[in-house]
């Protein structure tokens, strides 16, 4: 994916973030679905759009959001591939609280290992031209691929992403979520069940309620990582992209709404500062008045 094509993708993403339709966009035609990994009886799948064997097309990997607690691989947004000249791969991963952060990142690595191992022959992609994008938690995981995945992707596009999961916006009760009706503890934990991934519909809505509960209590890191950043701050080093930027980090575009009530706008600002510090190729596109985007 060359610079012009990637900036076109970024412009489409920024336009979508300025409206509430980013999560409601029409999906492309029906995908081919593959299992990239089976672990503890759980099949983890990737939906692939526009694949044609032996064509060597550029690839865009879409990583869904949902705070690592909810969300599905279904219905990646239409703006990902408006010209139809790329293969789009939408991946899923195991979800918290049943699955903790190290295993989630393991799934991320395994998805990309599968992609590099099978991508050329099975999907017809050019393994040297893979871009990664996602929003919110998907933006966080996108930023994680910049240092946690080998070989590194060609370029990253993080929408409403975050580079640090130990700051007070995640470790203390959220003023925004405290304005919503309190979620009882029993109801919150009952909602997540035992499934390793989520499904569209009521199941995903119940998982989203668990997220609200975590934000109201300020316990998201403990539920997702199984560790308390106030007690073990250094444990989180491998899971905070802002602490792992280097000159080898892939070129990255950050897009963030200035009025985001879920992920603070300065999370992207902090990543931008680190990119500037290490002279990493990057661009930062604030979306004026762009609001909450899970």
Tags for this model:
294 residues, Rossmann fold, 2 domains, 8-stranded mixed β-sheet, 8 strands, 34% helix
Which shape, going by the Cα principal axes? globular
State Rg: 18 Å
Amount of beta strand: 15-25%
Low-pLDDT segments, ≥5 res: 21-27
Strand order of the largest sheet: 1-2-4-3-5-6-7-8
Q: What is the CA-CA span between the terminal residues?
A: 27 Å
Total beta strand runs: 8
**CATH topology-level fold name of the largest domain:** Rossmann fold
Listing every helix as H and every strand as E from the N terminus to the C terminus, the arrangement reads: HEEEEHEHEHHHHHEHE
| Tally of individual domains | 2
Please, what is the CATH homologous superfamily of the largest domain?
Alpha/Beta hydrolase fold, catalytic domain
The first-level CATH class name of the largest domain: Alpha Beta
Major pleated sheet: 8 strands, mixed
Which helices and strands, and how do they pair?
Elements (H helix, E strand, L loop, with lengths): L2 H15 L14 E8 L2 E8 L7 E7 L22 E6 L9 H23 L1 E11 L1 H12 L6 E5 L8 H4 L3 H4 L6 H8 L9 H16 L2 H6 L26 E6 L7 H13 L4 E6 L7
Parallel strand pairs: 3-4, 3-5, 5-6, 6-7, 7-8
Antiparallel strand pairs: 1-2, 2-4
